């Protein structure tokens, strides 16, 4: 089955991400779309498994297969967790609604490590830009500040909110290069310190609820396996000339 057909026919959840979801869009901002598809169970019976992710078919579109999405979310991957909390949902079916209802099960104090590790990598890139070019990429600096705010508030409250709300204008001022780099550095350092403090007192559990997520994934796979499915004819039966279903 073509990867694009998996996205077209089996998407369970899709949303808009990036600046539009963060409340930071301006004229000319791209529309970044992210989604989750549940590949039919019969496809996993082949030697060649379904892809774990698909880029496209539209521009600025990226989708994960459900199992891969859950794996990454259980590891507190920032991009995946934020995708599941987008305020701009474009499509969701019954399975997608179950996934949304479980989003709290993915959240844990592990976010402190994963978000902070990602933020540190971005900070090193910004520092290199300043050394080599005299200034950072201001758009990247803005998004790093937003990420640090997001994880700090997640650890403080136990809830992940990705829209920046009333912090939009100060962040956009950074994007425009209107805030001196030393002030931006100081802001980042303060947010990192506040994040560490929030971690020590966070209401989040130490680990995500892996059992609930695994039960959900197993149920999705089992339901799919029981459905009449146009891909069944490619799976050879145990009796010549007969399908597994017939046997």
What can you see in these coordinates?
With about 250 residues, the chain is an alpha+beta fold. The protein has 2 domains: about 5-105 and about 210-235, 2-Layer Sandwich (Beta Polymerase, domain 2), CATH 3.30.460; about 110-200, no CATH class. It has helices at about 5-10, 20, 65-75, 80-85, 95-100, 105, 110-135, 140-155, 170-175, 180-200, 210-225, and strands spanning about 10-15, 30-35, 55, 60-65, 90. Helix 7 runs antiparallel to helix 8, helix 8 packs antiparallel against helix 9 and helix 8 runs parallel beside helix 10.
> Helix segment count?
11
The mean pLDDT is: 91
Helix content: 40-55%
In terms of DSSP E residues, the strand content is 5-15%
H/E series, N to C? HEHEEEHHEHHHHHHH
Rounded radius of gyration (Å):
21 Å
Going by helix content, strand content and strand pairing, the class is alpha+beta
Q: List the domain count as a whole number.
A: 2
Tally of strands: 5
CATH architecture descriptor name of the largest domain:
2-Layer Sandwich
| Shape summary | globular
What kind of sheet is the major sheet? Answer: 5 strands, mixed
The name of the CATH topology of the largest domain is Beta Polymerase, domain 2
Q: How far apart lie the N and C ends?
A: 24 Å
Give the C-level CATH assignment of the largest domain: Alpha Beta
Given as residue ranges, the uncertain stretches (5+ residues, pLDDT < 50) are 233-247
Strands ordered across the widest β-sheet: 3-4-2-1-5
């Amino acid at each position: 089955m073509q990867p694009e057909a998996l996205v077209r026919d089996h998407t369970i959840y899709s949303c808009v991400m990036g600046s539009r979801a963060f409340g930071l869009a301006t004229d000319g901002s791209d529309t970044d779309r992210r989604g989750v598809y549940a590949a039919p169970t019969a496809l996993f019976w082949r030697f060649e498994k379904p892809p774990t992710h698909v880029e496209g078919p539209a521009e600025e579109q990226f989708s994960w297969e459900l199992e891969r999405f859950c794996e990454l979310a259980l590891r507190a991957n920032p991009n995946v967790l934020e995708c599941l909390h987008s305020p701009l949902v474009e499509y969701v079916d019954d399975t997608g609604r179950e996934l949304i209802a479980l989003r709290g099960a993915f959240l844990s104090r592990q976010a402190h490590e994963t978000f902070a590790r990602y933020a540190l990598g971005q900070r090193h890139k910004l520092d290199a830009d300043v050394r080599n070019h005299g200034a950072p990429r201001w758009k990247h600096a803005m998004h790093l500040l937003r990420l640090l705010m997001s994880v700090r508030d997640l650890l403080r409250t136990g809830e992940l909110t990705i829209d920046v709300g009333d912090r939009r204008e100060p962040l956009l001022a950074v994007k425009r290069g209107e805030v001196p780099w030393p002030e931006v550095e100081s802001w980042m350092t303060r947010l990192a310190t506040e994040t560490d403090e929030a971690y020590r007192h966070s209401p989040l559990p130490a680990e995500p609820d892996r059992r609930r997520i695994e039960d959900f994934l197993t149920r999705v796979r089992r339901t799919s396996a029981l459905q009449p499915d146009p891909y069944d004819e490619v799976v050879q039966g145990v009796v010549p000339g007969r399908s597994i279903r017939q046997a």
